[in-house]
Amino acid sequence: MCRSWGPYWGWVPCAPIPWLLLSLVCTAPFGLLGEETRQLLEFDSTKVSEGATQPSGKPYPPYSLAEFSWNNITNSLDLTTLSAVFQGHPVDEHTGAFANGSLAFKVQAFSGSGRPAQPPHLLHTADSCQVEVVLDGASPRGNHSIFGLEVVTIGTGLDCPSVKELHSIDDEYAPAVFQVNQLLWGSSPSGFMQWRPVAFSQKERDRESAVPCQASSLHPTLAYSLPSSLIVRAFFGSQNFCAFNLTFGDPTGAGYWDQHYLSWSMLLGMGFPPVDALSPLVLGIIAVALGAPGLLLLGGGLFLLLRHRQYSEYQSIN
Ligand SMILES: *[C@@H]1O[C@H](CO)[C@@H](O)[C@H](O)[C@H]1NC(C)=O
Ligand SMILES: *[C@@H]1O[C@H](CO)[C@@H](O)[C@H](O)[C@H]1NC(C)=O
Ligand SMILES: *[C@@H]1O[C@H](CO)[C@@H](O)[C@H](O)[C@H]1NC(C)=O
Ligand SMILES: *[C@@H]1O[C@H](CO)[C@@H](O)[C@H](O)[C@H]1NC(C)=O
Known about the structure:
The protein has 4 helices and 16 strands. It is α+β, with helices and mostly antiparallel strands.
């Protein structure tokens, strides 16, 4: 149940971050119509045509995370890594899709700056925490299913947080992913959410298992279409909310269908987000790339100079 998260937040070292709520649990885009809350999305990507309105495919009925039962996180609380895992599956599951599967949110806080050993190696500070979403072992409803999450956040006044795409050439840490996406709450931001547009379809996270992660644009969503979480009300009062969809994978290439596994990470934090500096490898490549022509020019210059001197000496003899 949605509210069962409430008491547990107190146990999580980095949560709750007061001005920024990522309510992965509670939303109901069709709440006004009296339909159920919905959250984990699944699309049938078998018949996706170019330029289709639903680039991920035809949606299956979503799984509402408000109707998941979540584990007792006390047993997953690890004080050495400052992490805890919320693991859940639908309470009422007649299809048996989650018989051997679960959806997990691993929340991790950090005591200082650095990067996790695992891709996508998001740069973190002590003011941030990482949320890793893992869908493992759930049976998809089609043989080419793409999964997604609907994410609800607190707005800024009447607006939604601003969306920014940063490009980096920091290739060493996330091979071939040259982009960092971020949401900023305010121009001098009180908080941020940051992620690389990549998810992984295997436990072994590498280039082969990387799948793209697409984010839709943010839309204001009506507060009263959300289940009334006491925690949310207590921290934010009556706020406006914004929602967007994240989808993991595309119809071609690797996907959830390979190993029935999907993981994706994001960073949540206070103030300005950490900025990726160039990695030592990239700096080295730049140094070599810029250095080599420089050396050639220098060499060429010396050669010309010497040649010229020889030439003038020769002329002076004449
Ligand atoms: C969670 O587990 C701990 C230790 O196993 C136990 O003390 C606690 O009562 C449990 N909490 C709930 C809500 O079941
Ligand atoms: C769950 O695992 C058991 C044992 O490995 C297997 O027999 C069963 O078919 C699996 N169920 C689903 C829905 O995958
Ligand atoms: C996917 O499923 C459909 C219908 O269930 C089947 O006709 C098709 O052969 C399957 N494709 C693959 C690649 O297994
Ligand atoms: C997310 O995708 C689902 C399924 O396509 C859709 O019903 C829902 O309105 C989308 N939510 C947002 C915030 O775009």
